[in-house]
Amino acid sequence: MTHGNVQLLNDRARLMGPNVATFYDDPVHIVKGEGVWLWDADGRKYLDCYNNVPHVGHCNPRVVEAICEQAGTLNTHTRYLHDGILSYIERLTSTMDETLNTAILTCTGSEANDIALRMAEAVTGKRGVIATDATYHGNTSLVSQLSKSNIPSVGFGLGRYFRFVEAPDSFRVTDVDGAIFAASVAKQIEELEEDGTGFAALVICPYFLNEGFPSHPEGWLKPVASVVKKAGGLLICDEVQSGFGRTGSHMWAHERAGVVPDVMVLGKPMANGHPVGGVIADAEIVKAFREGYRYFNTFGGNPVSCAAAIAVLDEIDDNDLVANARTVGRHALVRMDALAEKYDVIGDVRGDGLIFGAEMVLNRITKQPASEFTDRVVNAMRHRGILLSKLGRYKNTLKIRPPMPFSIENADQLFDTLDSVLSEIPLRP
Question: Looking at the whole model, is its pTM more than 0.85?
Fold first, then answer.
């Protein structure tokens, strides 16, 4: 680790407090970004295979221009009338089912998920919420309760309203049609009703990204959606990571999963890093929320944010980035399958579009996770100019989720480097 990075880490602890997370054993001091590339303070160039926040590329010129132009004209909140927010919502919802027709814009996905949970209470009159046991949906006091691994020792007594089901794991559990998952949700719904809490909502990422994005056929969520509807609850789909064409087959991952959520949550990629989040639902659901809660967000939906968000949609359309995700994703799976034939440590290959990765195991028969090995791979890749991460219940699945302009050439650089790293790192230190 360089002297400069040591000083930065010391200053972070002094000025930001303890336990502020960083990536990698030797954190990267990033000073510049462009497209799918990042540069550190020493001028070293890195291929960004991780960041979905700059959805259409770091410092995308169209987005930068839209921000600058609008910031130089007007920026205020939505208690004044401005047409930018209306233009954006109309454009955004035109890509969705007709029941997803009304939006509330926020600054973060955490805020958006918080609103979604309150919408569920407003509509159902109940508070019981179900999530998977290996996910993350944000960090407000309410939403943090959805992340079982992150539940704090204090939580304002909110934990009693939440129940968890085992996250899908296509590598270890055969649930081809989603019936097992649906049954586990039904069981938790029954318990919520029996203890008097009542069932309000199921909250999931329709692609189960944090859970390790298990391999599911199209339509896999239909059984659980039927269970939720029959019980009178809302299906909330958190598309912060999986949306805006990332899967390469659809604009929204819930379309691939064969469902239409009652409420959809958006965040990070909406405006390419400018802080924008959103909640999309039917007008009647939004009406119930607004009648039950007095809600206003000073910065949510401001003109500059909306200009940036519109520019992102323009980039996706004009550059056919959904098709690019599909093409590059197919190539990536071919390259990963070839590596799996070469290295026994790769237990499973999975992904769609520009979400792909491999689960590392100590033994293909027992499927014992190679979590520590995966961590060493991620750090070795960082030192060779490739930025990626890991995720899943066992933190043994490579998480590769680059900006949408990622190319076949970029993918080849990634997998050539990964091939080299896997050939050199021993399975056990």
Answer: yes
